[in-house]
Design goal:
Blueprint lengths: L12 H87 L3 H6 L3 H6 L4 E7 L5 E7 L5 H11 L1 H8 L4 E2 L5 H11 L3 E9 L2 E10 L8 H86 L7 H32 L7 E3 L1 H11 L1 H6 L3 E5 L7 E3 L1 H18 L5 E9 L4 E8 L6 H4 L12 H5 L6 H11 L4 E6 L3 E9 L5 H7 L6
Helix pairs in contact: 1-7, 7-8, 8-14, 11-14
Length: 520
Amino acid sequence: MNGVAYPVSQFDPSSILIVVSVILLIIVIIIVFLLVSKNEEFKELKNAYDKIMQTFDELDQQAKLIVKTDLELNKAQEELDRRLLGLNTLQKLARKMNTSRDENEVFQWINEPLITALGFSRAMVLAYGDDKKLICRATIGLEPKKTTVVPDALSKNEQLIEPLREGITFSSLSSSQKIRSSIVQIFDTEHFILTPLLSQQQLAGLLFVGNRYNAPAVNEGDEELISVLASQLAQTFENVQLFEQVYRSSQMLEIKVNDRTKELTHALKEVAEISKKKTEFISAVSHELRTPLTSIKGYAAILMTGKVGEIPLAVKERLGKINTHSDNLVKLINDLLDIARIESGRVEMKAIAQPIRTMVDNIADLLIPQLSAKSLVLKTNIPTDVPPIEFDSSQVERVFINLISNAIKFTPTNGTISINVLPNFEKQEALVEVADTGIGMKKDDLAKVFDEFFRVDNEINMNVKGTGLGLALVKNIVEAHNGHVWVTSDVGVGTTFHFNLPFKHVPREQKKQKSPTGDA
């Protein structure tokens, strides 16, 4: 160790400077890198912040829009609720108005609850009176003096009244400033609707509604509600007036009907008395004529036999005519007596249940000579299910003989006569028809054919004499059996006589007692 020498270490300053510089450069690079990295991060944070602020602004706008929409919806809901309340109120009012016939009652319904429900605090209904002047009929919320001031002011204001006559409505929403000022001055109301009440296109009255200055303004919905109310009022007033007119007319008509009924009742009594006297007269005269006619017929028969001496042929022929005409007069008198007895109820129908076919067959056999003389065919149609009918055979037989004899008289050669009997079980009666293929009758004659002494104006009746009592007798006999007779006919085609016979016969007296009106 003592003799060894070690070298001493040498430090180069430039090398140290280089090392230090390198270290500083590295530090600077690291610092720069860190600064760049932080700057990028800052930009990203700023962009995120900007996006958040943008989103917040959008949310704020949406929130404001939602609040605005909610306020508008609430306002619309309130308006809708108010409108529904008004419509419901008007519906209830309409139901009452439809049943009302009193104008004063209608005006009483225009009251404060109704006007409040429609969204107003003031109202007035005006109508034209009998003197054609406007008068106040209902008022709500207005000063009492307005009831006289308003009608006069409106009547004198041609600028208002003329358009109202034409159906124009004024409101504070749509009227001109001049019109608005005029109405505000008359009613002392800022928000208003003034509408006409039109009846049959004529101005019958006016409806005013309004609110004071601090109330909401009138809108279109208010105008629609008041328009509906005005239409209801106008229609109700028109209905009431029409009802009054109809009622007065009915009262006058009822008075006239009562007076006319009294006159007709009196006339019917006179007619009944005249008819009774006529029947009694015919009966008395017929009885008085019967005796001398019987004597004339008897003397003529004795003279014709030659018991009082030989009779010249010319005299005998004339005695034969006397006898024939006497027979005709006797038949006429008998028919008159029968009609009089049946009309007065002195003939009692001896109704017995019997088959109608038997009687029709007997009559057909009886009339065979007359049918054969004109080569006429008689057809009968009587179903087997026709039950026995209660009738007086002697009287109903006369009905058939008269009707069939008429058919033979007015039916040309080779014609057809039909007898039909049809049962109607629902009505408990038989419908009888006697039809022919004869010359027929005019429609004007059908209504008179059953009148006494009436004879159809035709060529056959001009050449063949008759009394005009046969069909009148038919009518009386059928009605005495509680039936009805009528006729149908066509000129050149034929005639059909119809009549019905109930299965069960009820005497007239019993039928009158059963009838609630006393009519047979």
